[in-house]
Specification:
This protein has 234 residues and is mainly α. Helix content is 84%, strand content 0%.
């Protein structure tokens, strides 16, 4: 490696890292939070079998899972101005990514809730609990344990997909690498450096996922033992 290239990589690394911290990570966090809320609502509508809303939810999921994220991003940022709705690049990215991710999260959450045996709902009714209490105390804690690995993987995928917002002028990690590469004419080295930062970030997320999964399993096992012990004493 030449001294010039080493200097370029050394000077560009803090800029890339700063773009990751200031834009890529917040974008990922905001989108995941919003998509998780919307995904839960879409899943709940289907589980409650509210006919009209259920059909609308299925159509929503069909559309957003069946069309490319990049196309959806372009529709929100470049397409909406043609009908009088103009958004800045960052809010447009949040909207497009949230709507897309919510469709996938809805299916993950729905399948996780439906994996809980129906007998547990019946047992809840028998002890006098309402539907909301059964969901909050019995169903959702178990569903969360099932859904957690898939939702965690969606966060990792979302982190990588944020590079797409460079196409609508959001200056995140990849866009910053493009700008620096345009100045120094070293695209290979700079894009590899950007890829390394994505890899480091997602490695941290993978370790966090593993730790939280173990915590969830431990907590579930401890709760299960406590209930068995309580039942034996009764």
């Amino acid at each position: 490696m030449s001294e010039r290239l080493l200097d370029i990589l050394t000077s560009s690394f803090p800029k890339l890292l700063l773009a990751c911290i200031k834009v890529t990570i917040p974008l990922t966090a905001i989108v995941f939070a919003l998509s998780l809320i919307l995904g839960f609502l879409l899943a709940l509508v289907q589980i409650l079998d509210i006919k009209v809303l259920k059909q609308l939810a299925r159509v929503y999921i069909w559309i957003f899972r069946g069309t490319p994220l990049l196309v959806q991003l372009y529709i929100v940022f470049f397409g909406l101005p043609s009908i009088g709705i103009t958004l800045d690049a960052f809010p447009a990215a949040i909207i497009a990514f949230s709507l897309n991710s919510a469709a996938y999260n809805a299916e993950t959450i729905r399948s996780a809730i439906m994996s809980v045996p129906a007998g547990q709902l019946e047992a809840g009714y028998m002890v006098g609990l309402g539907y909301g209490q059964i969901m909050r105390r019995i169903v959702l804690p178990q569903a969360a344990r099932v859904a957690f690995p898939t939702l965690s993987n969606s966060v990792i995928s979302l982190t990588k997909d944020t590079s797409l917002v460079a196409s609508i002028t959001v200056v995140e990690l990849f866009k910053t690498a493009q700008q620096i590469a345009a100045v120094y004419f070293e695209p290979f080295a700079l894009y590899c450096e950007a890829a390394l930062i994505y890899l480091l970030l997602n490695t941290l997320l993978t370790f966090l996922q593993s730790y939280l999964e173990k915590r969830l399993v431990w907590k579930y096992s401890a709760e299960k033992k406590r209930r068995k012990k309580k039942g034996a004493l009764a």
